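Supplementary notes for students who missed Thursday's class. We covered one full example, reproduced here. Read the sequence, then the structure, then the short commentary at the end.
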Amino acid sequence: MAAEVTRSACKQQGERNKASGRIEQATYVELPSNDSA
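Structure (token representation):
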């Protein structure tokens, strides 16, 4: 039961943070490029 509630909560947060998630992904992509540079 607890696992199902946690999964549903994570899904809701993921949907709400789609925009922020994309921004974070872009940041992570820039970090390795800066290190190689």
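Commentary. The chain has a mean pLDDT of 66. DSSP finds two helices and no strands in the chain. If anything here is unclear, bring it to office hours.
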